[in-house]
Amino acid sequence: MDIDQSLGLKRDTWYDWIVLNVATFIFILMLLLTIFQITVRVFDLPISGGAWWTEPLARYLLIVGTYGGAAVASRNGEHIKMTIVSTQLEKRAPLIGSIVDILAQVLTVVFLIMLGYAGLRASLQNWDTPMMAVGAVQQGWVYGSITVFIGMMVFYELINLRSLLTTTNFSQQLMNKENRANKEGE
């Protein structure tokens, strides 16, 4: 898998800038909470009320941050996918390989929309329910932030689908196939 090194913020859109910086902020906050928790435990610091809340909060940030990282991976087209079938098909029958890629992309978008709908419902149903470990954090906030990142993934996957559909090779192959079928029918 090739790593996309074009993650420079100056070339990105404002939307890319927001996604990347929010995911980075969540990761840094999680890291700082974890370092704080380790420091308090190792040095047995007498903090009034304790720092028990940092562990579950870091866990929630890890969960939400995972979806943020997945949105960044979708932006770069680096999410987990099995390319062996489409690669072999593109070598033997390029049109079929392109169709398989498009079908996989459509299924990814449909799955993410269904996941986002479930996340939205969970967010609305649990908006006022406090988390057991950290009462100041509502379950709906966690589900809502996950749903926002899923929405970002849908956006990026739709962009990826559009680029697959407008690829000149795919369009030319499809037109050549139709022209041959029309000539054979005459």
From TrEMBL:
Pfam families: DctQ (PF04290). This is Tripartite ATP-independent periplasmic transporters DctQ component domain-containing protein. The keyword Magnesium does not apply. GO terms for molecular function: transmembrane transporter activity. It comes from Natrinema versiforme JCM 10478. The chain crosses the membrane at residues 14-37, 57-74, 95-120, 140-159. The keyword Electron transport does not apply. Keywords: Cell inner membrane, Cell membrane, Membrane, Transmembrane, Transmembrane helix, Transport. It is a multi-pass membrane protein. One of its GO terms (cellular component) is plasma membrane. InterPro entries: DctQ (IPR055348), TRAP_DctQ (IPR007387). Residues 30-166 form the Tripartite ATP-independent periplasmic transporters DctQ component domain. It is found in: Cell inner membrane. GO terms for biological process: C4-dicarboxylate transport. Its main location: membrane.
